[in-house]
Amino acid sequence: MDLPPTHTTSRTHPPRLGVVDLGSNSVRLVIFEGLTRNPLTIFNEKAVLGLGRGLQLTGRLNEAAIDPALTVMARYAAVARAMGANPVQVIATAAARDAENGPAFIEAIRTRLPDMPVRVLTGEEEGRLSADGVLLGFPGADGILGDLGGGSLELVDLRHGTAGPAASLPIGAIRLADRAGGDPLRARAIVESELARIPWLREGEGRDLYLVGGAWRALARMHIAQTAYPLSIVHHYVLRREEARDLAGLVAQSPRKILEKIPGAPAKRLGDMPFAAITLRRLLRATGARRVVFSANGLREGWYANLLPDPIRQEEPLLAAGRELAQRWGRDTALAPALLAWTHPLFEDEAPEQQDLREASCWIADIGSHDHPDYRAEQAFYRVLRQPGVGLDHHQRAFLAMVVALRYEADTTMGFLATARVLLDASAVKRAEILGAALRLAFTLSGGTPVLLRGTSLRRHGGELQLRLVEGSGVFAGESVQRRLDALAAVLGLTATVEVSTAG
């Protein structure tokens, strides 16, 4: 039997960019796709090699890790090349810049991989790039940034979205353990002495402490697991000062056998965790920070941020995330501005941040259009709740996810909505219910097209919610429209009415 000919198609993709983070504890390749306000990571692989282990005692990179590191680097170069990433750059941090044999190691990389440029960062450059990464996720950040690696701790004063003074201290988790000879009391004294060299840390009083680095993210995961927090996303996870202090105290004082039993404890980092916790407690004391904010963004995202065109970098990340979802999953990106104007009469007294959430909701309102109709509400809910956008805090994720689920007519009692309800207060839930019902009505009227939506409008007048329709515009108040209008009016505590007028 003759088989039909096969056809292959090559799909073009947005530009890809790769960065290798050559650190004291691990080597990691991250490949980003596209130049967007919210970095999209399509590949992320880490090898824990401990290049900086023993550096404090010997002044040299860990000899046992050098050949494995070169092997890993060759793999990363091959992966980046196969995925079409360009540019690809290696950024080397404390271990490579401080070790006696660091220059020879860097030269070996350049010899074996001549097409992959290597940049050895100074401590200040490392701090600046980390700040750029954090500000990509927290554009208005105000407080002290602490980026804890294996070899060093980078500190930056962030003032309302601008990076100020920076410092680099030789108290990364691995180096601190080596300097202290494994003694927690000695480690505490070393950290106190190092932090005392930075007078501007005292200006963190009453502000936030932004934490970057794998060991500190591991602390966040442990707290998430211990408290059964409903969203397992470290980025934007927040702890009050007392909670962070108690968590760090527990980890700093617990022997390894106890740490192994703590939910979420990282098996490969257990030896370093007490020293990361000691550093956090001392940093809390030195800064007087009111709360801790964890960031998944850091050095690598800062590298990416510096490749973005300035207009993209200056975009509001919440709205950019909404637009990106609409472009990927929606049917008509022209609909969002129309929906924003159409829903305005329902929210005339909203604060600026509430209007931004409403606008983002209008962008994502159609992202379930290609899903199975029986699962649209739940699928869209999780797509939004777990999206990779770096500028969305957990409240924003929950609000947008609830709105889009209700827009697809999810029952308010459905179990999957519980995650959002835990993360939102009563007033936010009420706004989400109103907006979800309004968007559902808008799509029923318009079929998801701005042309048909223009033939309709909403108005609140006294105790009434009035839907106005233009005769001959292709919309009419059928049973489904009336039902959804009544549902919206009920959420608002109003009575629904329909008015039909002639065009003009």
Automatic annotation (TrEMBL):
It holds the Pfam family Ppx_C. InterPro entries: ATPase_NBD (IPR043129), GppA/Ppx_hydrolase (IPR050273), Ppx_C (IPR048951), Ppx_GppA_N (IPR003695). SUPFAM superfamilies: Actin-like ATPase domain, HD-domain/PDEase-like. Gene3D superfamilies: 3.30.420.40, Exopolyphosphatase. Domain 2 (3.30.420.150), Hypothetical protein af1432 (1.10.3210.10). Residues 318-494 form the Exopolyphosphatase C-terminal domain. Coiled coil: none annotated. GO terms for molecular function: pyrophosphatase activity. Residues 39-308 form the Ppx/GppA phosphatase N-terminal domain. This is Exopolyphosphatase / guanosine-5'-triphosphate,3'-diphosphate pyrophosphatase. It comes from Falsiroseomonas stagni DSM 19981.
